[in-house]
Every structure is written in structure tokens, then in C-alpha cells.
UniProtKB/TrEMBL annotation:
It comes from the Eukaryota. Residues 290-324 form the Transposable element P transposase-like RNase H C-terminal domain. Residues 95-216 form the Transposable element P transposase-like GTP-binding insertion domain. This is Transposase.
Length: 379
């Protein structure tokens, strides 16, 4: 388990703790997080959010900390252990939630909206079959890898390219313009893809100069971002799936994690914006939501694996050596991974020269203190 801090108002990140463990409980994780928050607070670092993925231990952890991600009584934040007036907002990594939603959609085959319209995976399959047959693509990146997603289920870009407006536009074109019978009734699927695509774009903004849905959340875009996230929450709350006996809300089944995650992420992103941008004497002029992503940690893991060459599964000793090396000299090719480098957030580095200077200054300071102590003792 590795803990990392990522600066929201600057371009740096730094891993600050790791634990070589086989398993850990939610309560133990919560204790580690509390201790980390207290130590960071002591050196002047204000932590505004906590991002993790969706295992059950993490749900137990956030409950232990004082947050609640249950959709019926959602409170996606908890008080800071050092200052109860400050809130630490909880997010479940948007990329993981997108993959889980794709998995649930493909596995179920058919989802139903609150008003009884059907969202069908078969439309995605029909579109891919048509494009493979014709040898042309209708302005999208859909291919067989997106349909046979189980072979590469950890690849984020496959889920992001599937939940895209370009796929939605292609489906709509096939139904309304080309009049293909296999696409009849795909309007609900088109709307679903566009809704999720919009929400993910808002939760994944990384360029201060971004346009449209990829723009940062700022005073001029806040209302639009809020409307998109609210539309996604309404859509996800109403999704139903057949459990073999009857239609039930998806948020009440074992596939609820992606629903909880997207809704919590939308609320937390807006709350963080209000806290950092809209309040008096705000420290930020806008919020880049990609700063809240777990991609920064995933890329660090990719760099650790790259240190081992062909061995991408390091043991404890190899991990510790790579960890130390990356802290001192971080310009290492990331190699393969489940996510791609999207911004220029570097590890807050300490070059060998800086380390040597710090050591020399520390030695000189200790020598002077020793000489002063000796002089006082002689006096």
C-alpha cells in the first residue's frame, strides 16, 4: 500500500509512505490515514480530498473515518482529525468507476432507465460488426477490443472510448439517417453514453485552457458542470437491472460500486470547488479535477515496474530500491501500465546534488552545535 500527495494548485506529487502488507482491514487503513493527515497538517499541508478505488475494505475505511458513501444517506466527506472545521472529501477513482460501469453494462446486457427505456449492449456489438464489415469507422474508435473487453479489462482507455459521444453519434446516425433495423430503439443507449461521457469529462479535466466539457471547473463553467453531474446522478440512481427474478435498482445489487462512486465523485468535486475557488480569499482560480485522480499513483507504480526491466512484479527488496531511486531521480520511462501520462505532474524531486548539499549543511550545522556546546561546557 502506497500513500501519495498531489498538489492541487501546483504541478508536483510525492509518495510519502508505503506498507509491505499481504492484507489489511478497513479499520487499520483508517488509522493510517488519520496518522498521515495529522503529520501532513503538522508541516502545513492541507489535505482536501482522499482518493481510493472501490474494494470493500475502502468502504469500511471511509465509514471508520466518518464518511458514508451509501446512496440512501450519502455524506462523501469526513472531518479533518486535526481541525474538525475542515472537511476531507472522499472520491472513488473515476477511471476505476468507469471500468466497473462498463463491466456491469456488458455483463447485464440490458439496463433499464427509471422511465422504462432499455439500454442495450447489443447496439454496441451491432455497431462494431457493421464497421468491421464495411471497413470504415463512423468517426469513433470502437473495435473488437472494446467488445471483448475481458481480455484487457484493466485498460482505462477502452472504457473511455466506449462511453464516448462519438460512439453515441454513430449509433444515432445508424438509426436516424441510415435506418438500419438493428439499431431501432437505441435512443436510450445513445443518451446513456452521452451522459456518462459528459460526467467523466467533467471529473477528468486537466488543462487550464480546456474547452467545452474538458474545461476546468471555474466560475464561468460551474453551472454547466453542476448540471452535467446532476444529470448523471439522476440517470445512475434510476438504472435497473434484472437479477434473474425481477427488475431491481442497480444501486441495491452487488454491482453498486460504480453507481456510488460516480455520485460521490460528482458531489465531492463540486464541494471541493466551493471550498477552494468560491470562498473568500480562495487559494485557487479554478479546479482541475484530474488532480483528484488515482492516475498519479498508477503512473508511479508503472515507473516502479519499469525499473525491473522484464520483471514487472518486483519483490519487497526490489520495490524498496525502486521507490528510493524514483524519489531521488524520477526521470524514468513509465513503461506499460493501465493508464497513460496525461499531464506534467512530476514527482517532487531531490537530485543527488541537492541531497549532498543538504547532508553537508546538516554535518556543518551539527559540527557548529557540537563546538558551541563544548565551548559552553568549558566556560
Amino acid at each position: 500500500m502506497v500513500l501519495m500527495v498531489v498538489s492541487i494548485n501546483e504541478s508536483w506529487k510525492i509518495p510519502f509512505a508505503y506498507f509491505l502488507i499481504a492484507s489489511i482491514t478497513g479499520k487499520e487503513k483508517a488509522n493510517i490515514i488519520r496518522e498521515s493527515l495529522c503529520r501532513l497538517h503538522a508541516i502545513g499541508v492541507r489535505v482536501v480530498s482522499l482518493t481510493c478505488d472501490g474494494p470493500s475494505q475502502n468502504f469500511a475505511m471511509v465509514r471508520e473515518l466518518g464518511a458514508d458513501l451509501n446512496i440512501l444517506n450519502m455524506r462523501p466527506y469526513f472531518p479533518h482529525p486535526e481541525d474538525p472545521t475542515l472537511k476531507v472529501h472522499v472520491l472513488l477513482d473515476p477511471c476505476h468507476m468507469l471500468k466497473l460501469l462498463r463491466n456491469a453494462f456488458a455483463t447485464a446486457g440490458v439496463l433499464e432507465t427509471e422511465d422504462g427505456k432499455q439500454i442495450k449492449w447489443q447496439y454496441i456489438e451491432h455497431l462494431n460488426t457493421l464497421q468491421e464489415k464495411e471497413g470504415l469507422r463512423l468517426g469513433n474508435k470502437l473495435r473488437m477490443a472494446h467488445i471483448q473487453w475481458r481480455k484487457q479489462k484493466m485498460k482505462v482507455h477502452l472504457a473511455a472510448q466506449l462511453f464516448s459521444s462519438s460512439v453515441a453519434d454513430a449509433l444515432e446516425y445508424c438509426e436516424q439517417e441510415l435506418k438500419y433495423p438493428q439499431f431501432r430503439g437505441c435512443a436510450a443507449t445513445v443518451q446513456f453514453l452521452r451522459t456518462i461521457d459528459g460526467a467523466f469529462d467533467v471529473l477528468n479535466s486537466r488543462n487550464p485552457l480546456g474547452k467545452g466539457l474538458k474545461a476546468p471547473i471555474k466560475p464561468s463553467t460551474k453551472d454547466r458542470a453542476e448540471a452535467i453531474l446532476q444529470r448523471a446522478e439522476t440517470c445512475l440512481r434510476g438504472l435497473k437491472v434484472n437479477n434473474g427474478k425481477q427488475l431491481v435498482h442497480m444501486h441495491s445489487t452487488a454491482k453498486k460500486t460504480s453507481i456510488y462512486g460516480f455520485i460521490a465523485n460528482g458531489r465531492s468535486a463540486l464541494n471541493i470547488y466551493n471550498d477552494l475557488v468560491e470562498r473568500p480569499n480562495a487559494p485557487c482560480r479554478y479546479l482541475l479535477t484530474y488532480k483528484l485522480s488515482q492516475d498519479h499513483l498508477e503512473l508511479f507504480f508503472a515507473a516502479v515496474r519499469a525499473r525491473g526491466g522484464y520483471n514487472n512484479n518486483p519483490n519487497a527488496r526490489q520495490f524498496r530500491a525502486a521507490y528510493k531511486r524514483l524519489l531521488v531521480r524520477h526521470q524514468v520511462k513509465t513503461g506499460t501500465g493501465n493508464c497513460l501520462l496525461r499531464d506534467n505532474t512530476d514527482i517532487l524531486d531531490s537530485t543527488p546534488a541537492a541531497v549532498n548539499i543538504a547532508r553537508r549543511m546538516d554535518v556543518e550545522l551539527n559540527t557548529k552545535m557540537l563546538q558551541s556546546t563544548t565551548s559552553q561546557a568549558l566556560l
